[in-house]
Each structure stands twice: as C-alpha cells, then as structure tokens.
Amino acid sequence: MTAKSSSRTTVRIPDALTVKELADLLRVSPVEVIKRLMTNGVMAGQNQTIDYDTAALVAVELGFEPELEAAAEPEPGTPLIEPEEEPDDPASLKPRPPVVTILGHVDHGKTSLLDAIRKTRVAAGEAGGITQHIGAYQVERDGQLITFIDTPGHAAFTAMRARGAQVTDIAVLVVAADDGVMPQTVEAINHAKAAGVPIIVAINKIDLPAANPDRVKQQLTEYGIVVEEYGGDTVCVPVSAATGQGIGDLLEAINLVAEISELKANPNRPGSGVVIEAELDPHRGPIATVLVQRGTLRQGDAVVVGETSGKVRAMLDDTGKRVKEAGPSTPVVILGLEDVPEAGDRLRVVADEKVARQIVEERKRQREAQEQTQHARVNLDTLFNEISAGKLKELIIILKTDVRGTAEAIKGALERLSTPEVKIRIIHAATGPVTDNDVMLAEASNGIIIGFNTRVEPGAKKRAEAVGVEIRTYNIIYQLLEDIEKALQGMLEPVYKTVVDGHAEVRAVFKSSRVGQIAGCYVTDGVVRRGSLARVLRGKEEVWKGRCEGLKRFQDDVREVQAGYECGIVISGFDKFQVGDVIEFYHEERVS
Ligand SMILES: Nc1nc2c(ncn2[C@@H]2O[C@H](COP(=O)(O)OP(=O)(O)OP(=O)(O)O)[C@@H](O)[C@H]2O)c(=O)[nH]1
Predict the structure, then answer these.
(1) Using CB atoms within 10 A of its CB, is residue 20 exposed (0-12), middle (13-18) or buried (19+)?
(2) CB-based contact 146:255 (threshold 8 Å)
(3) Pairing state between β 302-305 and 346-350
(4) Buried b / exposed e across 383-398, counting CB within 10 Å, b at 16+?
(5) pLDDT tens column, 346-392
(6) Rounded CA gap, 545 and 528, in Å?
C-alpha cells in the first residue's frame, strides 16, 4: 500500500506542530497519535512539537495523504530561514552595481590603480574625504555605483572561489605598458576565464617613455584576449595610475560592461552575502567586511556567518559612516559577531539569534562528519566512473612544464584526446613549478594538475593533499598521454569493493511537484549520506540503483542522517517507492 492511493483524504500539515494539533487535524485523540508515534520510535507528549516528516508518518498510518502546508508569506522585511538556493522571481530583480576585482602581474600597478580610483571620489568632494580600508569600496561614475574589491591579485580572487564564493562580476586586468604580458598576467587571465567573468584590460603606466601599448595588445592576442581595436570584443583602456590619466575612461568601460552583463539582484528579501575580510578589533570585538549579494542587510538582523553567528549591532560603510541597511553589491563592516569569520564565508540573515546558534552547531557537526569522509574531487582513477555516470563532461587540467615549448606541445596533444563524452580543457598552462596558486585554481575549478619535468612546491603538495586535488608528475610525454587516455577509457580503473554504509526503511511516500517522489524513511542502521550510491530493495529483489539526490531532516537539507532518525530521501530517477522498501546506502572502496 502506498500513500498515493486515490481513496485517501488529503491533509495539510505545517512543517512543525504539536502532537495535540496533529490529533485535531486527523480527528483522532492525542493518545492515538502518541501510540502511533511510539510504534515509530518517537516518544512525545501531547504538547511536544514534532516535525512534518514525523507527523506525515502518523497521517499515512491513519489513512490520510499528507501534504506540506506552504509557509505563510512573510511580512515584507521579516527575516526568516530560507535556503540560499531559492530562486528569485525575475520580476523582483533590480539592477545592482558591478563588483570588480583588479588582477595583474606583480608591480604592474594594481594597488596604485585602486588608490587612483579611490581618489576620484575624494576629488568629487565626498564628505570626510578619507576612505577607510575595509576590503572593498564603492565609487560613482555617471550616477552609477561601482564596487571594487580592495584586495588585488588573483590569489585572493581564487581563494574565495575555491571556498565556493564568487564575488567578482568583472575582472580588470592591469598590464604595465613598459613591461608587457608577464607570467602572472597569463595566470590572471586564466583564473578570470576559469571563473567565467568578463575581462577589461587596463594598460597602465602609459605616462612612461618606454610605454608601448600596442605591443601589449599584440601579446594579449596570444592568450585569447583580442581587444576591440583588433576586431575582438575585449574593452581595453590606456591608463596611468600615477597621473590619473584614463581613470575616468576605465570607470566608464566598467559601467558599459556591467550594463551588457545585466547584473541584477532582489533587494527585497533578507540579506545574504560573502565575507571579504575579517579581524578581531581590540575595542569592538570581531568585525567583518561583508559584501551583500542578495537582499538587504539591516542593523539588528540575526545572522549566521560560516561557523559563527551574532546580531548586527552596528554597520559602517566604506567611509566609516554608520548605516542602518545595505543592499546588493554594497560592502559594509558589521559589528556584533561572536567570533571572527573567514574570508569567503557566507552570511545569511535568519529569524533570531537562537536559530542562528542552532544552525552554527549543525554546521560544525556536519563539517566534522564531512572531514571524516574523503573529498569527492576529480582524480584519474575514478574519472571513468564519473564520465559513465554522466557526471563529468569535461576534464579540467592545469599544466605546468619546464619550458614553454613543451607546454604548448602537451596542451595540443592533450586536447586532441578529447572524446565525444569528455572534453579535455586546459585552463592554465605555464612554465615553472606547481604552486599553491595552481592548487587553488584546481580546487576552485574541480580540475587536476599535471606537472611535466617540473617540481611541486612543498606548500602546494601539502595543500593539494589537504583539499584532495590530484597532482600527477611525468618526465615522458607518451606516458602522460597514455595515462590520460586510459583514464578516459576507464582502463586505469582500479578494482573496487562495495561497502554498505547503512539502511533506511521506507515508511511513507510523498509526492513533490519538484523532485517527483520523496520517501519518508527511518534509518535503521549505519548512516545515510546525500550524494551516496543507493539501491532500493523490495524484499530480496533490487528494484533500482541510483544516487541519493535529496536528504532532508525537517525542512532542512542535510548531508547525513544517523541510525534512529527519520528523514526524507530522494533517489535519482526513481519514483516508484512503496512502503516497506529498504534503501541500502553504499560506497565503492578501492582494493589495493
Ligand atoms: N610611472 C608610473 N608608475 C606607476 C604607475 N602605476 C604604478 N606605478 C609604480 O609601479 C610600482 C608598482 O605599483 P603597485 O601599485 O605597487 O603594483 P602592484 O601591482 O599593486 O604590485 P604588488 O602589490 O606588489 O603586486 C610602484 O612603484 C608604483 O609607483 C603608473 O601609472 N605610472
């Protein structure tokens, strides 16, 4: 019998309610509900609150078809817990300022350029005149605001991305007109491309007699950056951070690219954003610069930031002025956190401080649990499995070699190994050892690193091991190519054994318009994890094999659920659950 039989009466159940309220809804006595709960392993008194999943189990047993009652529309501006992924109604989106990061080779003038841009607003007569360094600032040009991230360089840019936080909309690539394209210019180009952000070229130091902007433009074409003058679509602006020449043009170019990118966000929702930098101030406690990305952050909001929480006691803008609220693309310093968060941590507004602390506790627990399982990153041994499962369409490679000629040759040869199933994409090829930056890029892009006739810096090796990025080194080209080819065809595939992690018993089946079927389950032994391999057993027969696509406790998405708890489970491609089915969770372990 499943919960889907047509004779059942639908009952709408809120996401949390007391046992008594549930009894009223189901028109039975509270004692009846308590008895049913007990047989399902839940001990609860009549005034105790239970979650939807638990209530639904009882409803099904009593012949109802449970349905989650949609939460009431919140009052505008009321902070609430909501999943970050929830999309905005397109009609609610409003234009927002672009967020710009300045990248480029050492000494080409990134810091000077940021200073010169900052000065334009002092010149424009801004009150106070002095800008605080808070990690980001805004300037206005032709009535449009532009937000600059004040930490130049792609190391910071990619470190953020490796932590899953994409803050930059536009990258300004600074190239010194006298020096031309240098190794870190190329690295910056590839980091920006990997992040998929448009590039604007600022040819700096044009005040110098040795300046040769044409040579720079020419050199850039070798790296796929073709400026407009040469028939390409990259905007290029000659500037001098020293004299201020061209800074206005650069700002106009940014506005132009921003307009084409149609950057938008919904300001009318609880604020969320990313930490740009944070520190412990001896007088004010933990302070963090946050770039608001969606919604509006307000003084008094309860927030969760990475693994800390608090209440926004005060907010300051980039001139040090107190502000009460901050909308999309606005950088603000917030005071009132319990601890110092990390750059790249996400901030979310939640209902109140108690909820905030609960979420932090849960996050810490989940992280600890995750630390015990290996990072699921791409590596050559498991490549074929990923391809077969349709999970990988592209193998991303970062290639480091001893000399430039080899880099080009290997790049070409590797790209030719692409198959209809998997494209090989080399997002960065350069000479020199494998560095920390390369590992960060691989981490952010889910790629692997190949070193040819080159060494791996100790720091890079340590980081790669910690984050699970694969580095392979070779001295013979054909061996390198053969390994990749074998990996693509699954011939490198080692032998695996199946290890069972846990079982969950299906106790109710719910329909969801979004994901198909959700199995209301009880974890009988072990642990079940989101993303894990799973097979559905009916008696002794295996009726389906797939992946656990969704795992919920109450209304929250969770990474794992231990034995003795209820949860909602979605298995990829399967919508024929029956009450009594057992879902077996397992993983493949390599046999050495
Ligand atoms: N003549 C001239 N010198 C400049 C210009 N921009 C920067 N410089 C000089 O170039 C040097 C490097 O500038 P920075 O702004 O520190 O360069 P950077 O790219 O931030 O360097 P790192 O932070 O070390 O990566 C400094 O001595 C600046 O004074 C310019 O437009 N013209």
Answers:
(1) middle
(2) yes
(3) antiparallel
(4) bbebbeeeebebbbbb
(5) 999 988 888 888 888 888 877 776 665 444 567 777 666 666 666 66
(6) 15
DSSP structural state of residue 581: -
**Which of 220-229, 390-399, 429-438, 525-534 bottoms out in mean pLDDT, i.e. has the lowest?**
390-399
Task: Kindly state the tokens that stand for 288.
Answer: 């963090």
pTM: 0.61
Residue with more model confidence, 495 or 513: 513
Q: Which two tokens stand for residue 7?
A: 């004779």
Atom of ligand 1 nearest to the CA of 243: 31
**Residue to mutate (ligand 1; options 107, 207, 240; most atoms within 8 A of CB):** 107
Tokens of 381: 């041994």
Indicate if ligand 1 lies below 6 Å from the C-beta of 107.
yes
Tell me if 240 CB under 6 Å of ligand 1: yes
Q: Is the CB of 241 under 6 A from ligand 1?
A: yes
- pLDDT given for residue 371 in this prediction: 60
Give yes or no for residue 204 CB within 6 A of ligand 1. yes
Q: How many H-runs (helices) and E-runs (strands) does the chain carry?
A: 14, 33
* ipTM metric: 0.97
Tens digit of pLDDT for each residue in 299-345?
A: 999 999 989 999 999 999 988 899 999 999 999 999 999 999 988 88
* DSSP-derived pairing of the beta strands 560-562 and 556-557: unpaired
Annotated binding residues for GTP: 104-111, 150-154, 204-207
Mean pLDDT of all residues belonging to the chain: 85
How far CA 180 is from CA of 107, 187, 218, 250, in Å, comes to 12, 14, 10, 19
